[in-house]
Structure formats: C-alpha cells, structure tokens
Predict the structure.
Amino acid sequence: MCKVLQIPRSTYYYEAKERVSEDLVTSDVIDIFHASRQNYGTRKIKVELKRRGHIVSRRRIGRIMQEQGLVSSYTIAQFKPHAKSCNESEQTNELNRAFDQEQEMTTIVSDLTYVRVNQKWNYVCVFVDPFNREIVGFSTGSNKDALLVYRALASIKVDLNKIQLFHTDRGNEFKNKLIDDAVKTFNIQRSLSDNAVAEATFKIIKTEFVKCRHFSSLEELSRELQDYIHWFNSIRIHGTLGYESPIDYKQRHLKKIV
C-alpha cells in the first residue's frame, strides 16, 4: 500500500504508533474522569495522567473530553453563596483569616448548608481542618440547630483537647449555650467571623455531591455523604495542597517531622 501511495514505509509506522498512543490516553482520560465522580476538569486530569506516565496538554485533554462527551460538574453553573443572618455576638475573630495552619487539628472551622431530601430541606454540618482541608467531622439532620453542630463536633475522631481554636461564622447554630459548654469542656477558644475555608468546602460539596442528586431519605443522604467524604479526604486531589489528597498531604507532612 505504501508503494501504491508512493510514501515511505516509516510514515505508516509513525501514524500507527500515534493512533495507539491516542487510544491509551483517551482510555485513561475516561477512566480518570469517571473515577473522579465526573468532577475533574482538564487541570486535574492532566496531573493524574502525568502520574500514569502521560505528558499531555490541557488542550488535548479538553479535545478528548469533548469527543467523548465528558462534562465536568464544574462546567455547569455553580452555586452562589447567599448572605446569612447573624447575631451580634461580641466574640472576636481570633483566627484573623489565618487559614493556612502549620499543624494538624490545632484549629477547626465549621459551617452548615441545606440539602433537598424527599421534597423537604435537610441540613449538613461539617468540620474542616484548615491544615490539610480534611473534613474531620460531619452530621446530617432535619433541623438547622445547635444539636446538628454538636453531633458533628462529637463525630470528630481525635482527642478534642488537642484543638486550640474553633472558628465559625456568627450564626445562632454556633453561638449558643450547648456549643459554648461543649468547647469550654475541652478548653477550646472560640472565634467568630467570616469563614472562607468552610464556605469553600461547601462550594465543593454542593458542586460535586449535592447538585443533580435526589435523596429519598435522611438515611440515604447520611450514607452517601459518608462515602463522598471518604473519597474527598483520601482520593480527591486538591489544588491548594499541590494536587494531593488531604490524607496524603498530612502523611507527607508527618514524615517530614519524623
């Protein structure tokens, strides 16, 4: 055939090799995309491809995603934060926006949001460690109240005496006797102000977990959220952590200390 077309035989081998390479890359792009729960875009897929030995441009990844009909959750319009009502607590902002912590579990931040469950609003509360953006505690419930926050705090699986600072916004769910008594028990200092880390985490949760999902019961929401948080902490790579998962980032940090 090469003789008939009057082209060098080397041209055929080069094109054949390129086609196989393209197939391998396409296969890995599809695999990475679905393993990310249809959340990763070209930037994170590029990082994961590099770990698999493929050096691929974001433009090429974008072309493959378009050809394969792969649309990231982040491509669709995202949730916009809503202004929250707050109390007039005199508690100061002890954290002072120092969200980049050098040690794990010295500071925790928290926030809550609403999720549609069987045509009714239910709520999710999470606690985040700013050190590695890990979700360290969470709870779900049908009421947006102090008990929801208290159960999330109680779910944290480390010694609460280690925590020095608890930072939230000024919502009544956080500033009340039940939560005040809980943090005093462990000598945790309070801080009330804006809550960028927790709000950023909830933006991720809403985009990757809540959007386009229907939960038929609170039990289903709790079960699916627990599974998502495991993926979020152990597998999902975070740009703010140098494209590592929160758990990998923490383990690497601990190795440096040892």
